[in-house]
Amino acid sequence: MEASSFGTLNYIALIVYLGAIMGVGVYFAKRQKSADDYFKAGGRIPGWAAGFSVFATTLSSITFMSIPAKAYTDDWTFLIGQYIAIAILPIVFWFYIPFFRKLNLTSVYEYLERRFDVKMRLFGSISFMLFHIGRIAIVTYLTALALMPFIDMSPLTIVFLIGVLCIIYTFLGGIEGVIWTDVIQGIMLSGAAILIFLVICFNVDGGVTEIFSMSAREGKYFPAEQFRWSWSESTIPVLMIGFFFASLQQFTASQDVVQRYIVTDNIEETKRALITNAKLVACVPIFFFAVGSGLFAYYTQNPQLLPEDFNTGGILPFYVISQMPAGVAGLIIAAIFAASQSSISSSLNSIAACFTSDIYEKISDQPSAEQKLKVGRILTVTAGILGVCASTYLILSNESEIWDAFNSLLGLMGGPMTGLFMLGIFVRKANASSALVGVVSSIATVVCVRYFTDLNFFFYGVVGTLMVVIVGYLTAPLFKNTLSDADKEQLTVGKLAKA
Questions:
Q1: Which residues, including other chains, have CB under 8 Å from residue 100's CB and lie 6 or more apart?
Q2: Looking at the predicted structure, is the pLDDT value of residue 484 above 60?
Q3: Domain span at 453
Q4: 43 and 155 share a domain?
Q5: What is the C-alpha radius of gyration for the chain, rounded to an integer number of angstroms?
Q6: At which of 378, 411, 444 does a domain end?
């Protein structure tokens, strides 16, 4: 498979997409007059658009390519995780959304200072920012690495197109531009998955019936052995528990998703956003797994079309470039770019929101709305440049181990962060000191579990979350709680949750 086969029509389709995304950023630039516009969109976002944005944000280009590869080489068991993400929504509706809406937060970590102290706020905010700078680097790097064999571009050019253009339109359009580009990107992702599957159905002898029959014969859906319990392997019970806590972290303690709760006009629109996201999550990922089954059937019938020693991780872009019509292939590669950019742009705006709200406002003397907007834009560029530089380093050094370990270690903070919000909202007698003891105990325990046991990584979030809540609850009586009764009522399950 030669890179030059990408072709002129495909390049035109890709360039048109990139130009359209830039146009969205330019269009919304004129509305960015204050930090409230830049980080909250002035409440102008309809619920359905915010829902598309949540969906596109949580589906990176790596997911776009890895799900079909997973279904191609293994089975559909990871589909379970998508429905677990839907199952947590009642918890989010009843408890978390009222908190974040009523408190009028820019950064979700503001809550941690109100409930505990500034140390907890800085812990949450800085952990989030560092993790997402690493995430930008990893997503950009892996996307460039995956596409490099199939399109006539150097990896550095791919990094530039993904990263630099993403910085520009996020800088210009703020969260409003990010969300509306996410809508475009979400539609492209969904449409691409459906289109690829339909094309494969026409190319496989026996069509859709043969695709699903072959997968059933080969045990590529939910094999019986995957229903067993295991402490070290990713079986279905482990996946269900792990995805529950991972989804809880994403929807209750991660700025990039929680920020979508405050961009709508009212709480009903916010709930509509999550319902829209749930509908998309319920339907679209099935097509990604079906694409993997379709590719398995197609290349089982046509093994001569696969190069020797082919890396099946790139099976989706390989099929797109080699079998899809010219122009259409370009649009689908553009969808892979879209998946990458939707995740990165959300990270950029969220990092800027956290820094501006959690750090700049703390050290500055009552900055104006214009000053906060300026700082937010500077941070958008700074975070983007750091991510692009890190991606460039990974490409030039051809070594990802250090950054993978860094990103993985920071990812372990998700459990403690989820537990910290749980402790604050549901345990009234918890206080700043008990929260600190809980977080330190949680981090130490998770690090020990990771390096000294063979416990499956899906349990890390479970251990991290429960340790904060349990230790924070047990040690609370040892320390003085400085919150007034009125603050406890406002900042825990009580009036706010019922409002």
A1: 108, 111, 258, 261, 262
A2: yes
A3: 413-499
A4: yes
A5: 23
A6: 411
- Statement: the pTM of the whole predicted model exceeds 0.85: yes
Residue 290 CB contacts under 8 Å (≥ 6 apart), including other chains: 71, 197, 211
pLDDT of residue 341 exceeding 80: yes
Tell me how far apart the alpha carbons of residues 61 and 368 are, in angstroms, rounded to a whole number.
37
Query: For residue 403, is pLDDT > 80?
Result: no
User: Which of 343, 349, 289 is CA-nearest to residue 55?
Assistant: 343
Instruction: Kindly state whether residues 380 and 421 are assigned to the same domain.
Output: no
Tokens of 409: 């270690």
Residues 400-423, mean pLDDT to the nearest whole number: 70
Show which of 411, 435, 450 is a domain's final residue: 411
Query: Domain check: are 18 and 29 in the same one?
Result: yes
Q: How many domains does the chain have?
A: 2
Contact between residue 394 and residue 407 where contact means Cβ atoms under 8 Å apart: no
Q: How far apart are CA 395 and CA 383, in angstroms?
A: 19
Does residue 292 sit in the same domain as residue 303? yes
Q: Any alpha helices (H) in 118-235, and if so which ranges?
A: 118-147, 155-159, 165-203, 207-217
For 484, the 3-state DSSP assignment is coil
36 pLDDT higher than 90: no
Do residue 47 and residue 105 come from a single domain? yes
Q: How many CA atoms lie within 13 A of 168 on its CB side?
A: 15
Burial class (CB in 10 A: 0-12, 13-18, 19+), 5: middle
pLDDT at 3: 42
Is the distance from CB of 493 to CB of 95 less than 8 angstroms? yes
- What mean pLDDT do residues 436-449 have? 94
CA distance 85 to 79: 10
pLDDT in tens, 246-302: 889 889 999 988 888 888 888 888 889 999 999 998 888 899 999 999 999 999 999
CATH number at residue 384: 1.20.1730.10
Shared domain for 10 and 93, answered yes or no, is yes
CB burial string 382-421: b at 16+ within 10 A, e below: bbbeebbebbbebbeeeebeebeebbeebbbbbbbbbbbb
Residues in the chain: 499
